Every structure is written in structure tokens, then in C-alpha cells.
Amino acid sequence: MVAQPDLAVIKEGQQAAWAAGDFSMFATTITIVSETLCETVDVRAGQRVLDVATGSGNTAIAAARRGCEVTGVDYVPAVLERGRMRAAVERLDVTFVEGDAEDLPFPDESFDVVLSTFGVMFAPHQERAAAELLRVCRPGGKIGLANFPPESLAGGFFRTAARYKLPPRGVRAPVLWGTEDRLVELFGDEVSSITLTPRAVHLRYRSAAHWFEFFRQHFGPIGLVHEGLEPGKRERFANDLMELVSDANRSGDDTIKAPVGYVDVVITKRESAASR
Fold first, then answer.
1. CA–CA distance, 66 with 51 (Å, rounded to integer)
2. What is the CA radius of gyration of the chain?
3. Where do the domains of the chain lie, and which CATH numbers do they carry?
4. What burial class does residue 159 get, using C-beta atoms within 10 Å of its C-beta: 0-12 exposed, 13-18 middle, 19+ buried?
5. For FRET with 266, which of 47, 62, 176, 257 sits at 20 to 30 Å CA-CA?
6. Distance CA 231, CA 42 (A)
7. Buried b vs exposed e over 126-137: b needs ≥16 C-beta within 10 Å?
8. Are 217 and 270 contacting, i.e. CB atoms less than 8 angstroms apart?
């Protein structure tokens, strides 16, 4: 019998990884993703919006800019505090709540729109996370996701990291959330439509070395893998990642402009769907 993964231990490791460095520094470089997702979903002023795995609040803040009644939820207190600071600076009313994407602390059918940007896709129990998104979304409401597909540059980063630190056994790859087949499996008959729109956001840095140093310092999952390696492997890990970015570079000069592909996903919950 294959041993089942210890999800509690996996989540503890994830929380430590996302709390390491300063995730908000990375998040500010991809705010365009959240703005685009809100436009793709067509969020409307006055709607009740939940941003799941909000991090430092990119998507929650984007929805609040559009006059929505917004809540952001995440299981890393440090990044939530950054979100509160950012919302306060813009004088936006966003409620930030500590909570788990697999056990959302909200009643059934609480929200008109449920969003997540490169967030819920990392939940180790994918079926449970998808069920929670559906549960808190009202019938006829929308679920909007920005997810990395397997073939993206981000997928390459994850595969490279896995060569140096094996991912937990028994947990399906997060990038499957970027494929239509897996989304149909996860959301099934409770939705009336699932649409995927290919997008790209660009990494823009002075050089591949500048990109890696920035990510090592601020993007916790990369930084922790790097720190956990012996010196020789650290250098190889860094070089492998920088090679990926250099190969993807489209700047035409010495700077980096590397497109990271992702998909905007819009899921409409059936009007007659019963809450799970």
C-alpha cells in the first residue's frame, strides 16, 4: 500500500517557504496579472469578492480598486500584514483573514466572485481546495484563477527545483491547475463553463544574475532550496535557473525580458449547483 502524504507536514513546510524572504517584493513585479484577471472575470462594483491565497494582496487590492467588497485569505500571517499595509496606503477597505485554502473560514455561498492568483494551485490537496472554492461561491457566481501551465517558464523553475529537492510524494503537481483536463476533473458537473485564456507576464531584470539574486532573497521557495544545498550544488542550481531565464530572454540586449506564460481561468458555477 502506498503511504499517504502527511498534508499537515507539507503545509508547515509551505508556510515556512512562503514566509521566508519578502514575498511582497516579488508580488509587486506582477501586479499586472491581478489587474488583468479582474478584467477577464469582469468583476463589478459592489460584488462580494474573495481572494484565496492572497499573499500580500495583489488581487484583493485590484478588486477593491474596482469598488468591490473584498476579503483576502492566506495561511501566512507575515504576508497578510504586508497586504494590510498596502491597502491602507491606497485607502482601500480590504479585510485580510488568516485561513487555509482547503478549509476556508466562510459560510457557504458567501461570495459572488472567488479569485486566486498563483495561489490555490499550490494547495497540496487539490480536490479539497477546488471543493472549497465552489462551496463559498454563490450559484451563478464566478471563480477566476491565474495559473501556471506545465510548459511555462515557471513550470521549468519547478522542475529544476525538484531535481535538487524532491517534492513531497503523493502530491500532484501545482501546474496541473493550468490545464483544462485537470480543471474539468476538479470542478466537474457543478460548473456550467470553464474557459482558459493564455497570457504572459514578463520578468524584467538587469541580467540573469540580477534576476536570480532578487528571487533568492525575496521568493521564499527558491531561497530555501538554495540555502539547503551544499556549496557546489548551490552554484549548479543557480546556473540552471539562470540558463532557463537566459534561454527565454526576448530583450534583444543584455537585460532580461523573459515571458512567463500562464492562463486566466474563468469558471462559472451552475445556478442550480448544490453546495458541497
1. 14
2. 18
3. 7-203+259-269 (3.40.50.150)
4. middle
5. 257
6. 48
7. beebbbbbbbbb
8. no
Alpha-carbon separation of residue 10 from 158, 224, 246 (angstroms): 16, 14, 32
The amino acid that residue 141 corresponds to is G
> Cell numbers of 66, please?
474596482
The count of other CB atoms within 10 Å of the CB of residue 88 is 11
By C-alpha distance, which of 275, 120, 266, 52 is closest to 180?
Answer: 266
CA distance linking residue 132 with residue 275, whole number of Å: 10
Residue with C-alpha cell 486566486?
116
| Burial class of residue 274 (count of CB atoms within 10 Å of its CB; 0-12, 13-18, 19+) | exposed
CA 155 to chain centre: 13
Tell me if residue 17 falls in helix, strand or coil: helix
Q: What is the pLDDT along the chain (276 residues), one digit of tens a residue?
A: 445 677 788 888 888 888 888 889 999 999 999 999 999 999 999 999 999 999 999 999 999 999 999 999 999 999 999 999 999 999 999 999 999 999 999 999 999 999 999 999 999 999 999 999 999 999 999 999 999 999 999 999 999 999 998 777 778 999 999 999 999 999 988 999 999 999 999 999 999 999 999 999 999 889 999 999 999 999 999 999 999 999 999 999 999 999 999 999 999 999 974 444
pTM above 0.90, yes or no: yes
The burial class, CB within 10 Å (0-12 / 13-18 / 19+), for 9 is: exposed
Report DSSP state, residue 100.
Answer: B
